Amino acid sequence: MVNKIAKELSSHSHDVTIITSSTSVKPSAESDPCGFTVYRLPFFTPRLVTHAGKAIMMRSLGRSLLSPALAPLSFLRLLGILIKIKPDVVNLHYVGDTALYVLLACKILNMKLMVNLHGSDIDRFHNRFFFPRLLTKQTLCRANLVVANSLDILTKATVIEPSIKSKSRVIGNGIDLSDFEKGAKYNHHKEYILNVANFVENKGQDVLIAAFARIHKLYPDIDLIMVGDGHTKNSCIELSQKLGIREVINFMGRIDKEKIPSIMAGASLFVLSSRKEAFGIVILEAMASQKPIVATSVGGVPDIIKSGMNGILVAPDDPEQLAEGILTLLNNKSFADTLAKKAFEDVVNKYMWSKVVSEYINEYNKLIET
Question: Could you tell me the pTM of the whole model?
Answer without folding.
Answer: 0.88
